[in-house]
Structure of 3'-5' exonuclease domain-containing protein:
Amino acid sequence: MQKKNIREFDSFFDKRVKVVSNIIHSNVLNHKLIEEAKLKELLLENKTSEYIEELIKKKKYSTAYRFMNALQYDTVSYQELVYSMATNDMKLQSKIIREQHLDTKDNQKVLNHLHGESMRFFIFRAEIPIQKVEELFLGDESKLQFLVENYFTSNKQIAIQIAKRNNIKVQNPQIQQEIDNCTNVTENALLKNDDFLPSEVILKTKNANDYVLLKNFNISREDVYLIEDEAQLTDEIIEEILNAPQTGIDTESFQEIPQTKFTSRMNKVCLLQIALPQKIFILNSANLTSSCKYQQFLVKYATSNALKIGQNLRQDFLSLLGQIRASGVQLNQIIELSELFQQKFPQEKKTNLSFQCSKLLGKELDKVEQISNWQRRPLRNAQIHYAALDAYICLHLYNLYKQ
């Protein structure tokens, strides 16, 4: 009986060692972190904690974390591991905090590091002009200071201009001296030239002929109507939209910048754009959410027999209806442009609106204003052009697909 129990224990223990070893070595390429014989010895002699401490002393934090995870250490131990890492391997620290659900309040240095990295990534994204970044940071002194200090090495003159325009003081005395010595201050070109055009055209970084423009369809600024509140959402406008046989639709959302793995991914839908053949309505959906008139209109519109044309339109409607807490609404007559595009160009993998325009019209959509703070007022004409065009182009592309 005793020998049988020993054999059963050995069999159980060998399986346990195998399981622990597999967890430790999951996703590890080319080499073993520890042999099973050594692991078995540590487990039998109850020396795994000493071994992990040795790994930490040698700064083999990833291996130590794998051992701790395999052996199901408690939360306090993981927090101590993060503390012991100091400023080493912030990516791993972030992973540990996220996977082990550690309190972010106890890990502010990691969050600050991720915030800075995310900010730098955002600032130096090639497709976002620095003038747009400055506009987004307006009113937030800490973000503007970060922008000036980090952009200084890339383009000293622009960084100095941003500092002077916004009266920003930096911590580096040499940079601050150069800012103080600057006497010629120019305006942000994006804010100075408030034209009803794409931002890239205003900044003269691209030619107007490269982009789809509303004026190509004989749509001017006067044909775009901003509906900011219930008083402006008149019965006549509602009737005109509901009676239209087909409408192009888009929405604009706002997301906090920067985004890290610990910030909310929730987008707040701020605008609902509805395009008719000769006019476009831009509704401040965030402000209208509590309006009974808007709520009734939105449900009636979503369920109407008129064609509603857009890109990812079902998700847009779900977000809009979610904002007014309307459940069980059956969407009707929804036309997804991406599906029509794939029917026409089955070999293409990209289906975004700008790509559809480049294939069908030989021109792109300017996407600079996509990251705008759509809650801020007043909207610039370039932002209005961007939002209006995103809805109108859906109507235009649909009619091309029909042909």
Observations:
- The radius of gyration is 29 Å.
- The chain has three domains: 2-99, 117-189, 199-402.
